[in-house]
Amino acid sequence: MSVETAYEDVCALTELLPERAAAAWVGGAQVALVRLLDDSVYAVAQHDPFSGANVMSRGIVGSAIVDGEQVPTLQSPMYKQAFDVRTGVCLTDPAVALATWPVQVCEGRVCVARAPHAGASLDASTSSATAVTEAG
């Protein structure tokens, strides 16, 4: 049996600055939205598992080279751990990860799934992320 994912319209893509994170309330959870330079958007938990504070949208968006691949990251503003925005996994402690949500960009609107990826908890479990870049 297939279950369709319910999405919530969060904002216009133009309201998210490239390479900056922004906080949003989606499906009863705080998320940090990250828009990259290619207009892909990722959603990760706002909750920093290392400090216990809801601060990830105040983090630094950047990248790191992991196994020869450039990985888009969000760095915690508290203790500076970097997380892969695609998977939520902490680069320095892979046992820790931010929950992630599927994101779609349709007709210039950013829509985020009301629930995180299956198996993700809102504290620190590993999951995979999905980003969709608007065509056009």
UniProtKB/TrEMBL annotation:
Q: Which domain of life is it from?
A: Bacteria
Query: Pfam families attached here?
Result: Rieske_2 (PF13806)
Q: Does the keyword Electron transport apply?
A: no
Q: One biological process GO term for this chain?
A: nitrate assimilation
**Database matches in PROSITE patterns:** NIRD, RIESKE
Residues forming the Rieske domain are 8-112
Q: Does the keyword Iron-sulfur apply?
A: yes
State the UniProt keywords alphabetically. Answer: 2Fe-2S, Iron, Iron-sulfur, Metal-binding, Nitrate assimilation, Oxidoreductase
Q: Name one GO molecular function term.
A: metal ion binding
What NCBIfam families does the entry give? nirD_assim_sml
Question: What protein name applies here?
Answer: Putative oxidoreductase
